[in-house]
Structures are given as C-alpha cells and as structure tokens.
Amino acid sequence: MTDAPEKPVQQLERVIIRFAGDSGDGMQLTGDRFTQETAAFGNDLSTLPSFPAEIRAPQGTIPGVSSFQLHFASRDILTPGDHPDVLVAMNPAALKANVADLKPGAVIVLDTHDFTARNLTKAGYTTDPVEDGSLTDFQVHALDLTGMTVEAVKEFGLSRKDAARSKNMYSLGLLSWMYGRPVEGTIDYVSTKFAKKPEIRDANLAAFKAGYHFGETTESFAVRYEVKPAEAAAGRYRNITGNLALSYGLVAAGRLSELPVFLGAYPITPASDILHELSKHKAFGVTTFQAEDEIAGIGAAIGAAYAGHLGVTSTSGPGVALKAEAMGLAVMLELPLVVVDVQRGGPSTGLPTKTEQADLLQVMFGRNGEAPLPVIAAQAPADCFDAAIEAARIAVTYRTPVVLLSDGYLANGSEPWALPDVASLPRIEAGFATGTNHTSVGKDGEETADFWPYLRDPGTLARPWAPPGTAGLEHRIGGIEKGDGHGNISYDPANHDFMVRTRQAKVDGIARSIPDLEVDDPAGEARLLVIGWGSTYGPIGAGVRRVRRRGLDVAQVHLRHINPFPRNLGEILKRYDKVVVPEMNLGQLAMLLRAEFLVDAESRTNVRGMPFGAEEMEDILLASLAALGVAPTADHEAEEALR
Amino acid sequence: MTTPATVTDLPDPVLGTALVPTLGEGESQTGKDFTSDQEVRWCPGCGDYAVLKAVQGFLPGLGLRRENIVFVSGIGCSSRFPYYLDTYGMHSIHGRAPSIATGIATAREDLSVWVVTGDGDALSIGGNHLIHALRRNVNMTILLFNNRIYGLTKGQYSPTSETGKVTKSTPMGSVDHPFNPVSLALGAEASFVARTIDSDRKHLTSVLSAAAAHRGTSLVEIYQNCPIFNDGAFDAIKNPDTKADAIIPLVHGEQIRFGAAQEDGLGHKCLVRDAGGGVRVAEVAGVAAEDILVHDAHHPDPTRAFAISRLTDSGYLHQSPIGIFRQVERPTYDDQARVQLSTAGEPGDLQALIDGPDVWTVEEENR
Description:
Number of strands of chain A: 24
Shape of chain A: globular
Oligomer: heterodimer
Distance between the termini of chain B: 63 Å
Structural class of chain A: alpha/beta
Radius of gyration of chain A: 28 Å
Number of strands of chain B: 12
Strand content of chain B: 15-25%
Helix content of chain B: 25-40%
Strand order of the largest sheet of chain A: 11-10-12-13-15-14-22
Strand order of the largest sheet of chain B: 2-1-3-4-6-5-11-7
Number of helices of chain A: 21
Distance between the termini of chain A: 33 Å
Shape of chain B: globular
Largest interface: A-B, 74 and 61 residues
CATH superfamily of the largest domain in chain A: Pyruvate-ferredoxin oxidoreductase, PFOR, domain III
Number of domains of chain A: 4
Largest sheet of chain A: 7 strands, mixed
CATH class of the largest domain in chain A: Alpha Beta
C-alpha cells in the first residue's frame, strides 16, 4: 500500500499494544496478525493473549472481554510488558477492563459505535467515559470503527451484521499504518483463509486496507511511529507459541530417537493445541489417540511405550491428578514416557485459561509410595522445543516417565525463535534389548541364557527395553514390586527396600547428564541471587535488567531441571547472602530448595493468573536488596530508560 | 513366515491375527512353551486354573509366534494371569488394561493382544475403558472372568452380584442392581460378544478360537466359580441335573432349543419372539416350527442379540444363554489409524515443518 501524504515519523524503542474486545470480536486473530507482521519486520517481541474460559461469554460484559497484548522493540525484550502504550477497545467493557493498566499519556483507540447506553450500562458505566472527562489523561481517538468498516465493505452485499464483523481488520489496518508494519503477510493470510468465501475475503481485505488508508489521510493521527528492527544474531527466525514449539519438539524427538511418537490425550485447556498439532503430523509417523478420559490417555501411551514407541501424554493440572496412578505404574514399569503438564490456575477447575505454576509439588510428589520421576520445565515459548527434546532424552535414556512442565502463558504466548538446524540436534539412542542378558544355572548345573527385564545398566541404572516381537525376551512386568534383576513378583522386605532406593538412585543419577548451572552475574559482586523456574524466566530477567540499570548487582539463575537438580545448585545457593525465589504459586520451589539445601530461600509469589510484570519483579528485587542494606542511589537514570 | 504388510492388503473378511507373524515351516509349539516358570498362586479349586489350562492348550494351535503375543491385565485374582503365560505380558493397574491394550494394538499391527479382566476390574473401576474399547473396535480379545464377587479384596459384592447379596460390605444385603456384561457390551456396539463357562473346556476353547479369529474387540464373558467367596454361583448351569434347563445354547444358524431332549434330539424348550419386542421361552410343542428363533450372530442390528441377553437371570442364576451372541464385521480403530498413517504421504521434512511459511533471515552484515 502506498503512503500518499507523508506524515512525520517518530522513532520509538519499544511499544506495547493491547487489542481488547468482546470474545467474538476477533481480538486474538487481530493480535496474532499484528504479531506476525511485527515478526516479519524484525522486531523482538513477546505476546500475552488473555481470554475467558467461556467460548462466548455474555456480549458486552466485563467477563466477556478478550484481549491480546503485544510488546515489540528494537532491542531484546523479555516480557509482554506491564503498561500498554496503546489500547484498542472495541466496546465499553473492553475499555473498563483494561484502562486501569494504562499510564497517563497512553493512546486509546475506541469504537464509538458500541458506546451505546445499553453497552455502557452492561460494562458498569453510569456516564459515557468518552464525554465525562475521565479519560483526559489519555490521547483518545474515539472513532466509529464499525460504521467506517460497514461503509468500506458495502459493495460486497453483506448483511450489516456480517459487514460489521470485519471491524477487527479495519483496526488492524489502522494500527498497521500507525507502526509501519508490512502488510503483505496479512493480505496473503486473509486471501488463503477465506479462499472459499470470496465475499468474506474481499470484505476483510477491503476493511484492512480502509483502516490503513484512514490512518494515512485522517487528521486524527498526526504522526506515525517507527520501531526499528531489533539487533539479533545472524540466522533464520520465525515467530512461535509455546504449544507449537512443544509439539514440534516432540516430533523432532521422534526423529532423533528413530521412534514413532504416540500421543494419548484427552482435550483440556490450555494443552489441547498439542493434541491438535500432533494430529496433523502423521507423515512423521506420529499417532494421536483422543482417549475417553485422562487415564486412558496415559494408559494408551504406556501401552505404546511398552510396544516400543515414544509414548507421550499431554494435559493440564486436573489431568495430572487423574493420571497419578498410571504415572506411578510407569515409574514401576520403568518405561520411557513423557507427561506434558501445561499448567493453569488451580485448584480443581480453577482458572482454565489463565497461567500458574502451582503443579510443581503435584508432579514431584503426587503419587502413592516413593515414586520419583524427573521433572523439567520450559522457560519461554520457543524454549518449549528444546525442553521437549530434553524430556524425551531423559525418558528414553533412563527408561522413566518424565514430567515436562509448561504453562498457559508459555502455551499461548509467542516470541521470535532462532530456528535450529535439525541436522545438528543431538541423537537419542533407543537402544532396544536385542538378546539375552543373563545366564541362569539350573539344579543340575546346566547353564541357560535368559532375559532379565530388571537387570540394570550399571552407569544409568536403566533397565533393558524389550518391546514385544523379540524372540527369547518374553517377559512379564507389572505394578507389583519386582525382584531385583529377574523382575518376578517379590514381597521380600529387603528387596523392596533395595528397589525403592534403586529407583530413587536412578532418578538422582540423571544429574550426571545435566550440565552445571551458569549464574548470570556480570560484575561478580552480587550478594543477592534470584532463582526461578519455568515461565518466570522472562519477567525475572526483565526485573534483573532494571535493577542493574540502577547500578545494583543481582545474580540470576534459572532451573530447567527441577528433579534432579543440577549438581552445582547447592554450591551456588551457598555463595549468596540472600536467595529470593519468585514463583506463580505459594512458594513450591522455595520449599524444595529449603528442604534440599537448608538455605533460607525467600519466597515471592503471585497467583493472579497472570505472569509477573517487569516493574513488579523490579520491586521484589529492590526490596530484597534493601533488606541487605543495598539501595539505589537517588539520581538514577530517568524512568523511561528503565522501561 | 509371510504376512501381509498392511491391513489394506488383506482379503475380506480379515482375521484378528492376520498381521501377526506365524511359525515357520517345521516349527511347532505346545502348551509347555506357553507355561512360565512362575508358581500359580490361585486358591485351590479356583475356576481360573481351568481357564489358564484351556488358554495354554489353545494358544499353540493358533500357530502364532509366541513373542508376538501380549497379555495385559488389570487388578484382581484373574489379573495375575499374564504371569503364568510365557508370552509378553503386563499386569497393570485396576481397570486400565483396555486402555493400555489399545495403545499396544494401535502401535503394533503384528501383535496378538489379549486382555484378562474380572467383573470388578472391567465393569466397576474400568467400566469406562471397557465400553470405549468396544465401541472403537480395537483389535484385541477381552476375557472377562465373571465370578460375581470381589475375591482379591476378600468378599465384597461386585457389579454383577445379585441384588440382596449378603457380603462383608453389605451385611443387610446389597441394594445395587447388577450389570449384565453381555447386554452392556451389546449396548456399546461390540462387534463380537460371547459367553462361556470355565468348566466346559470344549465350549471355552471353541469360543476363544472364534474370538481370536475376529478382527476387532472380542468380549468373552467367562462364568468362573470362586470357591472361597461365592461358591456355587453357577451351580444351576454346571449341575448335570439342571444344566439342560439352565443353559440356552446359541449356535449361529441353528434353532435356539434347550431343556430335556425330545424325540428330535433337541430340547423341548425354545425361544420365540415376544409381543413386547423381546424374546421369550416357549414349549416347542406349543409353537409353530417356523416361529422358533434361529440364532443369527451375524445380524448387523444387535437388537435381537440384546433381547436374548436379557434372558440371563440377574438374581440367582438358574438360566443363561451361552455362546456367541454377536459376531459382525466392522472396521477397527487400529487398522484405520494405521491406514491414516501409511497414506499420509512421503516422510515429513522436519526442517520444513519447524521453519513454517513465515521465516525471516538476519544477515551477518546487518548487525
């Protein structure tokens, strides 16, 4: 599209935009398209979709508001941002639900068409905020987006209702102009998506272009903004969400181990997209089984693992609760299995579409008996790819179920991903048993070669994996305690004691295959260590940057492996005067660290269903530093530089 | 040994074991080959012994390679079964065997998959998995040992115990209404449903043979006596004096006749259509020959089979149809899942997959 009357361009380092509207207004699609345009432009970015659990909550109400926040910058960024610079509000409820997050001076673009008396009442306004002076702190652009959309698409003969549905594309066009986004990707996307519905396709394209041109020509917007591409390492990039990266990681793990992938799963928010995605990849030998319940999902995955596949089950917290007994069986059977837990707010049904990290202790200990299993966590959307491969590596190498923790924020959030060269990814050795591994001596002294399913590798303590179909290795396994080596049922007290300790030792020994943690402490003078796990990686990193820009030292370390911990973790924790642990739960990692290392780890928590903000994290760290007697100097850099 | 590569190559109808490798020329197996070195630990007199012997005697005849046979069980007395067979096996957790077997059967077309379960395991804690395995028609054979009692937990009533049963957990008598496993399976649209008796080895073996040959989920209910906690539950159909009247034999293509034999050598009682839409017992002498039901296990509609299943007593068992109720061809879940896999095209390009359509490149000189 042409930029006919040139307007002045203002350079910005970073921008946070939040699109907000009714659940049916297409805000997720709008945000996703703006994200793709931004990724194509080369900015670094981070996104935070937020939507209600109801598919269509009551129209025009606060609970029905769906939003999509995008933070993009000309430099490396770590979070979706705390305070939007721009809020696009498609109705009064969207304004009401989001305006409190804005700082003075923020831009608000709102659709006056939906600011009717009825809608204002539904949103809880007694007067119209556009007219009552309550928005004077902001730069408000009150526009009839719906009316202009309907006008722009009138030639396509759609009903008024259908015509108005393109208003999200109109606002996307307007914002695309405002920030100089490349539009070809969105035009291609709309053309493909609605290829079979030409009138809808044409209306959406027309609305998108009309919104763009409106920005060019209207006097409402005096300037447009430019956020230059971010500096990034040379390489190939794409934008990706956590659930997609995790799915690709599982497909890749199948390739790397030369094992067919078998996913047994029951639909559950926010993990269902993994089932959807893997079901598309049959050409990669991936079988997906939508089970009758969570238990059958893991049951089938265990069966497939026994049969020699890479067994996977994906779920969220409530599903893990249901799978607990089968996870214990997998511990006892010592078969490779990946259990993906995309955490959401709990307990019980909790907050299905919101994020939380409160399943850590559930996956660590939520089984009967001593049932240790490895636990690893992804820390960013793109990192879900590597985390999935690592989960498969541990599962296959050590013949054990592994829990892979993600969460709702990682699952739906997105960021640019420096694409790996698949040829350089490390192989995973399945190493199936191919022959007998033991010699039995009969009463007559005669020796016979046989197969002992619980005769372990002395290095890894892993038992042999012998899928059916291999002659001479017929064997029976089960949930009852088994005798060391031969694996037959054993109720012998000393044997049980030995087997319980051996299963623990096997999981503990995985630490030998985990690289030592590297602490990020550039000056090497920090007295405070901040440690986290999972999706708090971004907010903790952002908070650490802010504190360092104030001239203060803080050390950061982040855990991928939670069970077992990396071998040097205890030594690291003892190096610092204070250890602070921010988590989206009530202190679960802190409890593990205190129990394991007798360290006075301080827990800092948030269970609002949203990730920590960068400011919030900065405040946490400053408070911890203050307790150490470390305070920022008064004349620190300007606030803007800290954003 | 030669076996077709995929189910799409197979003739129709397809045997349940069609893709399982068979013994080579000159190779043979006996029951001993299928007997593991583990001591059998059921109570003396338990009906499970008879079923184990029958299975060990019957498996060699299938001519399948032993390493391609898998027995999966849940929890309960009968679920110890896999330990005593020298095949691959898994003694899993309570009620979940059908789900685990579904994973095995879907993952591997070259395995003969068997589930051993009981009335508590299959119908109570595992009821959901059972009905879903049956509706999906996964290629497996389910042996449901029904002793109408909980044995391993020492004598509580089960979902097939008669109403009013006095047990440790129901001292005043059970007020639960029992399941009829055959009715349940037919309601779930199972493609193969049969009932047999632990003590009738010949009938048991013939039903197992048909079940193994069936492609899809075969459910075989086996009446099995628990001599400790529910002894005599099946006396009426085992006692030589009463069994002619108690057993309603179902043989495809034959009139359903039972009771003491009359001049034609067949029973004096028969089944006929009932005015209410079901079936009922009648005296042969009182009905026209063409009104006597001829058993049709292959009928696509399970309605008649269901009606016959309702003739099973839900209280004290003095009458029960025995045999194959239903045996119909229907696509199996696992075959269709494998066809989707094998027809998905050329092996995927992993790099192209993860790259997706929207890649951008940062060049070295742009830094």
